[in-house]
Amino acid sequence: MITDKEFTLRLIRQLSQALEKLILDKPEESLMQKELDFDSLMKDIFKMDFTEISLKPKEELTGMVEERQERDRKDYYEMLGNLFYFKGRGESNNDFLDKAKTFYELYLQTSGIFALPVINRINEIKKALE
């Protein structure tokens, strides 16, 4: 039997992968047919819609992630980085891009992996924010 926590982690990973494909301009047909509903996904994951999440300061969002189990935090940070990067790039929103940079950096710290695409995005965001 799948638990709520496992279901939420599965949602986070699926959303993160879907966003990654959109960021790389390689969306799957099924993804385009479904059209990502960020609000319903955010409600499933955080119990609030994207608008509510986007209004929260990054410190508060980080605190929400830190309440999760340590092993799961990297998935949350990657998903939040991808989400704010995708939305920030699409809407030319520097606040979203700044949040994306923060969450990507936290993802790199918590995962302990060397992710060149993420590092490149961080550098791209830094240039955009200058």
Provide an overview of this structure.
The chain has 130 residues and is mainly alpha-helical. It has eight helices and no strands. It starts with a helix and ends with a helix.
Question: Helices and strands in order, then pairings?
Answer:
Elements: H1 4-23, H2 29-34, H3 38-46, H4 50-55, H5 58-66, H6 73-91, H7 94-111, H8 116-129
Q: So how many helices?
A: 8
**Mean pLDDT figure:** 84
Largest sheet: none
| Shape by Cα distribution | globular
| Portion in helices | over 70%
List keywords for this structure.
mainly alpha
Compact description:
It contains 8 helices and no strands.
